[in-house]
Amino acid sequence: MDLGIAGKWALVCGASKGLGYGCAHALVREGVHVVVNARSARALDAAASRLAAEAAKAAGRGGAPARVLSVAADITSAAGRAAALSVAGGPGRDFDIVVTNAGGPPTGDFREWDRAAWIAALDANMLAPIELIGATLDGMAARGFGRIVNITSSAVKAPIDVLGLSNGARSGLTGFVAGVARSPIAARGVTINNLLPGRFDTDRLVATVHAVAAKSGKSVDAVRQAQQALIPAGRYGRADEFGAICAFLCSVHAGYVTGQNLLADGGAYPGVF
To answer: Would you give the end-to-end CA distance of the chain in angstroms?
Structure first.
């Protein structure tokens, strides 16, 4: 299926690895020019090189290769956002697609978190995406096309007690999106959706599994098998699968999907709604 977005410009945050990289990879394969962002310059440069190689390969099927630009910066800071929105050779604020993504806050007991911990969580997982939406939304509406996808978490649907910081911040973003996605911009070709990952085989999951294994005294393999047994699909998700879902939401075919929370968790969430 031709997604109809070749030649568009996308900003993909947290794109040096994991789910963010999966989204950038899927978009590049569709001929989308991407500005990828992450904090680590070394990891980001390596990711950008792989994406550029994929762009060249995709161009072999016809057309010019997608451009890949990188900005090593903290997207949760005002300076980091300014850098991403003004990278040399990029579209400035005139992005057609924005994929927001930032690492989740630490786990723990809510009794241990002070105001600074809450503000940090809100800055990263609620306010930074809102700032990026505010910086790009009106331009999208003026041009008659825009796609914003926020990578949040399955915990928005099924909160986990030790993820209170994430539950609160991401739920705040979800509520904000529910309103703005249904504002007049919906009639001007702009959609805003949230993509909620369950357990995907990423570096973050690997670290979590090792932590659980160390705490429980079980082997890493035993923890992985136990977790996957609770997922109806019988396995963890892959970053490329997640990226494909994101790319579809960014496509011309998804113009009638907005204000939604799409759960990608292999069937783990047991509810009807």
So the answer is: 29
